Glucose 1-dehydrogenase (Agromyces allii), 239 residues
Amino acid sequence: SIDLDGRVALVTGGARGLGAAYVRALHAAGARVVIADLLRDEGEALAAELGSDARYVHLDVTDEDSWALATASALDAFGSIDVLVNNAGIANAAPIEHLTLAKWDAVIAVNLTGVFLGCRAVVPAMKARGSGSIINISSVEGMRGSPGLHGYTASKFGVRGLSQSLAVELGTFGIRVNSVHPGLILTDMTTRIDPSKLDIPLGRPAVPDEVAGTIVFLASDASAFTSGAEFVVDGGMIA
Ligand code: NAD
């Protein structure tokens, strides 16, 4: 079985949805967890529930100073950041003529710039230790086009590309970088999507726990030779 004893994992957007499922699964596998999110109440409640091996830190992934504070506070609490899960994300949808620059900028800022800033923030500590696992959350929408999702799709393709360039640059320092591409998972982000309109071979959407196993695997030594890889977790939807 996978053992993350002694590892410290920071999960952005960890207060609810998929991120909270990743936090719970990493913690259950033995990791100490840092819940990094804008949502203070939800994040503090989850940390309190998990106990002394969990901390909430306030983080706006789009803000450099916020990253500096969050990583300093995680290092202060637990001494290392061995695993970074760049999960925070937002979605907006509009046909191209109605996609405002403000909406475009917002989705790129959180979903893509936020991942860049997160990777940049943890790499010095990972290089110093000679190890680390960075798990960047893209989407099936980072592998194909869908109507109305232009900013989201561009950001998620960007996350996939950034993961590739980082995997190549950081491998020599013992740092692995992989991307995960979930399909339709039931969270607050997807309440307005009708699963029956999608062609999912497994015949249903997933719950967040069904993606968490891939995250725990990538955080662990079970994936010690896995870097620059793309993990589709979509019930066969884009096959
Ligand atoms: P969600 O809306 O339930 O949760 C997103 C979390 O990110 C929230 O806790 C939110 O507070 C946090 N967040 C948003 N902006 C932030 C910021 N600037 N700084 C810090 N935290 C911020 O969404 P979810 O469905 O759990 O999605 C999580 C990730 O998975 C996203 O990157 C999303 O694009 C991706 N994803 C989701 C699905 C799905 O079907 N739900 C599919 C593919 C990919």
User: Anything to note?
Assistant: The pocket of nicotinamide-adenine-dinucleotide is lined by residues 12-13, 15-19, 37-39, 59-62, 87-90, 110, 137, 139, 182, 184-185, 187-190 (CB under 6 Å).
